[in-house]
């Protein structure tokens, strides 16, 4: 079955960087676009970024453009989110998600999330 | 960016009630809308895609309708496991945007 496991979260100081990973299994990773979605404590869901199946196309939320970079390694079945210039507004649970099918953006499968806390 | 609103922001209902949640987009998004359920401490779960298509494995008491700018999620007979927060998500254009959520709790 499809499994997505995020890792890399933790406590980081403002202004520093952090890289999240999402290990995928149970499906042909290289066939699907992948997304990152975050949720600040007690708040709603916020879409963060998407990467196409082959890594050639990427889009970002305005709030992270220029600071976050989404990438993937299809040989390792792993999705990444490189985050830099972090601030308290980036404190959130970060989820990776797989689309339902190629060409659509419905987020069918989700990981359990990894918590990022930006604090001095 | 396309703005999404939801109403109500919260509601109290009883088991067996019919529940309707509305989502409105700031521009025409055709039928490029999904509905997600999230329970406390858990990841979201896709219920409806393309505005009205039921995701595999989701109970038939959930249904979606609408197109353009106005969309509705209906739970025909609320069950105890349905108490959760519901979000709409437009996937018509980037950046994708979620609605603010509707919390459904027990009356």
Summary keywords:
heterodimer; A: about 120 residues; four-stranded antiparallel beta sheet; B: about 110 residues; mainly beta; seven-stranded mixed beta sheet; 11 strands; about 50% strand; globular
Protein architecture, described:
The complex is a heterodimer of chains A (about 120) and B (about 110). Chain A has no helices and eleven strands. Chain A has about 120 residues and is an all-beta fold. The mean pLDDT of chain A is about 95. Chain B has no helices and eleven strands. Chain B is globular. Classes of the chains: A mainly beta (about 120), B mainly beta (about 110). At the A-B interface, strand 5 and strand 10 of A face strand 4, strand 5 and strand 10 of B.
Major sheet characteristics of chain A: 7 strands, mixed
Ranges of chain A where pLDDT stays below 50 over 5 or more residues in a row are none
What would you report as the Rg of chain A, rounded to the nearest angstrom? 13 Å
Residue runs with pLDDT of under 50 for 5 or more positions of chain B? none
**How many strand elements of chain A?**
11
What is the helix content of chain B?
Answer: under 10%
Give the distance, in angstroms, between the N- and C-terminal Cα atoms of chain B. Answer: 36 Å
Q: Based on CA inertia axes, which overall geometry of chain A fits?
A: globular
Please describe the topology of this protein:
The complex is a heterodimer of chains A (120) and B (107).
Chain A lengths: L2 E5 L2 E3 L5 E8 L8 E6 L5 E7 L6 E3 L7 E6 L4 E6 L8 E8 L7 E4 L3 E5 L2
Parallel strand pairs in A: 2-11
Antiparallel strand pairs in A: 1-3, 3-8, 4-5, 4-9, 5-6, 7-8, 9-10, 9-11
Chain B lengths: L3 E4 L2 E4 L5 E7 L7 E6 L6 E5 L3 E2 L7 E6 L2 E6 L9 E6 L6 E2 L3 E5 L1
Parallel strand pairs in B: 2-11
Antiparallel strand pairs in B: 1-3, 3-8, 4-5, 4-9, 5-6, 7-8, 9-10, 9-11
């Amino acid at each position: 079955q499809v499994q997505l496991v995020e890792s890399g979260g933790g406590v980081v100081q403002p202004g520093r960087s952090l890289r999240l990973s999402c290990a995928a299994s149970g499906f042909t990773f290289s066939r699907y676009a992948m997304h990152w979605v975050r949720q600040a404590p007690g708040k709603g869901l916020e879409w963060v970024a998407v990467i196409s199946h082959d890594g050639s196309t990427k889009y970002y939320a305005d709030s992270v453009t220029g600071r976050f970079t989404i990438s993937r390694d299809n040989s390792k079945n792993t999705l990444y989110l490189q985050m830099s210039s972090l601030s308290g507004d980036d404190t959130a649970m970060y989820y990776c998600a797989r689309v339902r099918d190629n060409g659509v953006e419905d987020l069918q499968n989700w990981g359990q999330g990894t918590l990022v806390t930006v604090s001095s | 960016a396309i703005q999404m609103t939801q109403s109500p922001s919260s509601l109290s209902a009883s088991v067996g009630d019919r529940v309707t949640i509305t989502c409105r987009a700031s521009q025409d998004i055709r039928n490029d809308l999904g509905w997600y359920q999230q329970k406390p401490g858990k990841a979201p779960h896709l219920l409806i895609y393309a505005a009205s298509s039921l995701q595999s494995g989701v109970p038939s008491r959930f249904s979606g309708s609408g197109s353009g700018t106005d969309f509705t999620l209906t739970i025909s007979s609320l069950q105890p496991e349905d108490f959760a927060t519901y979000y709409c998500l437009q996937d018509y254009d980037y950046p994708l945007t979620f609605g603010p959520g509707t919390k459904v709790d027990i009356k």
